[in-house]
Design goal:
Layout (H helix, E strand, L loop, with lengths): L2 H13 L3 H7 L3 H6 L21 E3 L4 H5 L10 H12 L3 E4 L17 H13 L3 E5 L11 H17 L3 E4 L9 H20 L3 E5 L11 E4 L5 E3 L5 H8 L5 E6 H10 L2 E3 L5 E3 L4 H7 L6 E4 L1 E4 L7 E4 L8 H7 L7 E4 L13 H15 L3
């Protein structure tokens, strides 16, 4: 058996798939690997939707590998070894989810320092990887405290060393349903975005499903003087409309946007009637594709019995129509899709699972055609 086939066999067994399931999950891989490298520029005759240089992963997906003790395993552990493995798989981009690893990994536990960032940058460069973003510190206070502003500027300095084009957060700008709170969040993000832009970095917020639920912006007021009904505008759509497109960007998590489509389809209008409105994640991106420099390419298998309507699965093995999404979103060649899977770690039962899923997902990302 060739080394290549041995590797595929080990991958198949590690994923717990039989041969038929594995072949189905990796359809198009053989064809994809046989193709010549894409020529420069956005036009690709072979229809590849994610060009080689844009194939990325957020390190949250393999957080178990980064945080495990290298003295207790032969599996890749810590940033440096995980970068080597991701590069071997074929990834060209990573997105950080903080800068912490196991204390026994090379460089120590916390690399959120100038020295730590220089070390990370060296390891990225050694492996031909580009860091695109980080889910890190966004000040909670508004107006900004001096301490928060200093910490934000330090985060920008580290981002600069790492060569990040983008810096953001894993949370929504506010968890509130009320228009007034989104107005405050937009004021804060516009200011932070200006500071980031001056440092050559795009500031982004990452969504979960609730950010695409309906804004409470009208109707009778409650006892606290807050609106109780909606004009039909969704929270994040409102945020997009009142933030400066030159300074505030978004990272759509395509899985959670589809969960929002499943969950949030009715609202109570100002007159008290219940209205229906189906959310279209693709249309939001098509309306202003440059606002979405990053995506989380997270796949889901349809499961209407679950609260979210989908179960998270490796990229390319679910029911979200990524071929349609990536072929129709606009601004071809601009976006940076990062594979993410919150439930990739296999725990003690299967400690290699997250990197195995990363490999399967990379192959499916590379095989995507449209």
């Amino acid at each position: 058996m060739s080394h290549h086939h041995e590797h595929e066999e080990a991958l198949r067994r590690g994923l717990g798939l039989n041969r038929r399931q594995f072949l189905a999950a990796t359809t198009g891989i053989a064809a994809a690997t046989a193709l010549p490298l894409a020529t420069a520029g956005p036009a690709r005759a072979d229809g590849r939707l994610v060009p080689p240089g844009k194939r990325g992963i957020i390190l949250y997906t393999v957080r178990d590998a980064i945080s495990r003790d290298p003295l207790t395993t032969d599996l890749p552990s810590g940033f440096r070894r995980v970068f080597e493995e991701l590069a071997r798989i074929g990834y060209k981009q990573v997105e950080f989810a903080g800068y912490r690893q196991h204390a026994n990994a090379e460089g120590g536990a916390n690399l959120e320092t100038v020295e730590g960032a220089r070390m990370l940058r060296r390891w990225l460069d050694d492996n031909g990887l580009e860091a695109e973003g980080n889910h890190g510190f966004i000040p909670g206070s508004w107006p900004l405290s001096a301490a928060d502003l200093d910490r934000f500027k330090q985060a920008l300095e580290i981002a600069g060393i790492l060569g990040l084009g983008h810096m953001g957060t894993g949370g929504d700008p506010t968890g509130s349903a009320y228009k007034a709170d989104w107005d405050v969040a937009a004021e804060k993000w516009n200011r932070l975005g200006e500071i980031a832009t001056a440092a050559g970095i795009k500031l982004y917020t990452h969504n979960h499903d609730v950010a695409y639920s309906f804004l409470l912006d009208s109707g009778p007021l409650d006892a606290q003087g807050r609106p109780t009904r909606s004009s039909g505008l969704r929270r994040l759509e409102y945020f997009l409309s009142i933030t400066d497109p030159a300074h505030v960007y978004l990272e759509m998590d395509i899985f959670w946007a589809h969960v929002a489509r499943f969950k949030y389809h009715t609202f109570t209008a100002p007159d008290g009637s219940v209205q229906r409105a189906v959310f279209d994640p693709l249309a939001v991106v098509q309306a202003q594709p440059i606002r979405f420099p990053l995506f989380h390419a997270k796949d889901g298998r349809s499961n209407p019995a679950s609260g979210n309507g989908y179960d998270m699965v490796p990229f390319g093995t679910g029911d979200i129509d990524y071929a349609r999404f990536f072929s129709q979103m606009g601004a071809k060649g601009y976006h940076n899709p990062m594979y993410e899977q919150d439930n990739a770690p296999g725990g003690s039962a299967n400690p290699g699972q997250s990197l195995q899923y990363a490999e399967l997902s990379f192959k499916n990302l590379a095989a995507l055609r449209g």
